[in-house]
Specification:
By secondary structure, the protein is α/β, with parallel strands linked by helices. The chain contains ten helices and eight strands. The chain has one domain: 3-Layer(aba) Sandwich (Rossmann fold), CATH 3.40.50.1820. It has an eight-stranded mixed β-sheet with strand order 1-2-4-3-5-6-7-8, sandwiched between helices. α1 packs across α10. The longest helix is centred in the last third of the chain and has 17 residues. The mean pLDDT is 95. It holds the Pfam family Abhydrolase_1.
């Protein structure tokens, strides 16, 4: 991996292949390795870039006491500039999908395309009364849980809470994918876990009706219904949007159904290149 020095930390990233830039941003409490099936598939035809977002993977802890989706997007912009990448195709999962949405809001026609796996617009994925979100924040309880039990057990508790409301194996339908995800979570420092959660919870998405970037939203069949609703809303907002739902898959749709995800992405990418 290579590194990019920031004012308040170091961002680790990896590049493979040559061609049009295809940049992958992972989900919360994971790392760039979660895109391995996609990197292996597309590195022969694209310049594939993966990164470890602040708080995750090789990047690890950075100085700010508070993270935000906006800060993560600043880092993405800095990496694109550092590598001299123009008209990238951006692919984000979950938290990464928020980063891509923020990038498109800032630059509605700069990306050549966007693939949003497990796409979520806000957390929780529902509208709350105006001004009430700070007062309903689970951050105090989360901080207590982290101090008592650590990142892995806290994340497992979160999964149990989501499953209680959805009745499904929301994160993934494959035990081996679940195990790898939990291993990645276990590497996250407690304070970094808190800062990442805060970034997700505080994010307030903008209307994307001005976005001209071709956009594909991909959800797993067992994705939370409220998240699916957000995906449909997103597709209806952007000028050129489409949505696909893959069976036998959950939130980590690119890992549950890697071949199907890759085929759908390849079809979308061919359209972007033709355009």
């Amino acid at each position: 991996m290579a590194e990019l020095s920031l004012e308040d930390g170091t961002l680790w990233y990896e590049t493979r292949g040559d061609g049009h830039p295809l940049v992958f941003i992972h989900g919360g409490w994971m790392n760039g390795q979660s895109w391995r099936p996609q990197v292996d598939r597309f590195a022969d035809d694209y310049e594939v870039v993966t990164l470890d977002v602040r708080g995750h993977g090789q990047t690890g802890a950075t100085e700010p006491n508070q993270y935000s989706i906006e800060l993560f997007t600043d880092d993405l912009e800095a990496l694109l500039a550092h590598l001299g990448l123009e008209d990238p195709i951006l692919c984000g999962l979950s938290l990464g999908s928020m980063v891509v949405q923020e990038y498109m809001d800032r630059h509605p026609d700069r990306a050549a395309g966007a693939i949003l796996g497990g796409a979520v617009r806000s957390m929780p994925p529902m509208e709350l009364p105006a001004g009430m979100k700070p007062f309903l924040s689970p951050l105090p309880a989360l901080t207590t849980s982290l101090s008592l039990t650590g990142s892995k057990t806290t994340f497992r508790s979160m999964l149990c809470s989501i499953r209680a409301t959805t009745g499904e194996r929301w994160l993934t339908v494959k035990p081996e994918v679940q195990a790898r995800a939990m291993d990645a979570v276990d590497e996250i420092e407690r304070d970094e876990f808190r800062k990442v959660f805060g970034a997700l919870y505080r994010y307030d998405p903008s209307d994307l009706s001005h976005v001209r970037t071709p956009t594909l939203v991909v959800h797993g069949e067992q994705e939370a219904p409220l998240v699916k609703r957000q995906g449909r809303q997103l597709v209806s907002e952007v000028a050129d949007g489409d949505r696909l739902e893959l069976s036998e898959s959950g939130h980590l749709v690119n890992l549950d159904r890697p071949n199907a995800f890759n085929v759908a992405s390849e079809t979308f990418l061919e359209g972007c290149r033709a355009a």
